[in-house]
Amino acid sequence: MSKELLIKNGMIVTGDKRGTVIQKGYVWVNGSRITEVSEGEAKFTADTVIDAAGCIVIPGLITAHTHLYGILLRGASLNIKPPTDFAQVLQRVWWPVDEALTQEDAYASALSAGADMLRNGSTLFADTYSGPNSIEGSLNEIARGTKEVGIRGILAFEMTERNNADEANRGFQEGIKFIKSCKKDDLVSGMISLHASFTVGDEIVTRAVEEARQLDVPITVHTSEGLVDLYHNLEATGERTVERLDRLDVLGPKTVLAHCVHVNDHELDLISKRRASVAHNPMSNMLNAVGVAPVPAMLSKGITVGLGNDGWIYDPFENMRCALTIHRLASRNPSIIGPEEIFKMATIEGAHCYGLGTELGSIEKRKLADIVILDGTRVPTPLTPDSIVGHLVNTFGGRDVRDVVVDGRVVVKDRLLTQTSDLHVSETSIKSARELWSRLQQHER
Questions:
Q1: Residues 206, 186: one domain?
Q2: What is the total count of domains within the chain?
Q3: Burial grade of 95 (CB within 10 A; 0-12, 13-18, 19 or more)
Q4: What 3 state SS string does 316-379 have?
Q5: Do residues 323 and 304 both lie within one domain?
């Protein structure tokens, strides 16, 4: 028999098409699905009751692009020559990290980053893993960590031919095997991932596209994040990055292009025409000094844009604030984008990126119950239906997340994980990071 959950007395930001905000109401969940969202007092009880008085109830936030293993590099001191552009960041930082990763790191980072995202209000992430010396079985280890904390994840192995074609093929097979193995899993699913246009040839791209369509899963690729991608394609084919991807039939309704910093209007028209989506990673773009993606132009062309963290800062509220401010600065227009667009990017638009808009991204009847409850007692100004979305982007942070529900299960209660212990997560992560740092130091010597 399905268990029931009742969330009562909270202000509910539904995130539906009308932008409905219920000043005081309840959400009733039966099993994994929302069965009722209503104003007023709940006249019944349930197996589990959460009193959300003084709280804000919002849809689970969606991280449209991440690299879970990035958390293991947090605070690391690398003895490397400081990079001066994005290509050197890849060559001196991330590619050596990729090569040093183990199966244990895949599990530990999923556990740690998954817990960090949950505690900060993310209930779904889309991750690509890139460990050339830990390919086989890596996605199962990531899935193990994901399910252990109780977050929802879309997982892929990131195919690349930067070392050799065999590495790409092994990654391809790992991805296909994983996708087929988790077709009926409640929390994890698979997708196809290409690292970037400048590290894969036409043949593997074509195979990836065909397989993604046969399996009916999303396909994702880093797209013109840095100028190296654009220049490589121009030199090799005379095409801009998105033009090449379009020629190879990559673009489509289930395609998620990560970054899209160095794209022009023609490329945006192609993305819009093919109904592909973009995962915007503003904080990572700033960190790597690659530039600012033309998100306002994307939105004006009807392109679906989700919000990601690219494996750096896992607090989605920080990423929302950055997305709000970076485009105002870049355009020198303080009205170029507003909190409403940003909140949609972090919720329903992120769901649409992966074809999940009918299942996730808003609090509505029959949708999956992925819900976040924020403590509203420390907000300095009134919380009203008119002010709440502005508060979500300008006031709240991960520190205000009190409870989190994923698939109808309470996975964070009073700021603590419920499916595993916070101590287990931190101990596992620290042990894995310490050993990874040691291997990196040996590599540097």
A1: yes
A2: 2
A3: middle
A4: HHHHHHHHHHHHHHHHCCCCCCCHHHHHHHHCHHHHHHCCCCCCCCCCCCCCECCEEEEECCCC
A5: yes
3-state secondary structure of 129: strand
pLDDT for the residue numbered 443: 65
Same domain, 127 and 53: no
Domain end position, chosen among 353, 376, 407: 353
Do 304 and 403 lie in a common domain? no
- 32 and 173: one domain? no
Residue range 226-271, pLDDT digits in tens: 999 999 999 999 999 999 999 999 999 999 999 999 999 999 999 9
Render pLDDT for 288-335 as a digit per residue (tens, 0 to 9).
Answer: 999 999 999 999 999 999 999 999 999 999 999 999 999 999 999 999
What pLDDT is stored for residue 441 in this prediction?
86
The answer to whether residue 445 scores a pLDDT higher than 70 is: no
Contact 126, 163 (CB under 8 A): no
Q: Over the stretch 8-44, which tens digit does the pLDDT of each residue have?
A: 999 999 999 999 999 999 999 999 999 999 999 998 8
Residue 266 is encoded by which pair of tokens? 């023609």
Question: Residue 442 domain-assigned?
Answer: no
Tell me the residue range of the domain where 272 lies.
61-353
Whether residues 186 and 285 share a domain: the answer is yes
What is the residue whose two structure tokens read 């904390």? 149
221 close to 185: Cβ distance less than 8 angstroms: no
Six-digit token string for 444: 């540097």
What is the residue type of 260? C
Query: Model pTM greater than 0.90?
Result: yes
| CATH number of the domain enclosing 22 | 2.30.40.10
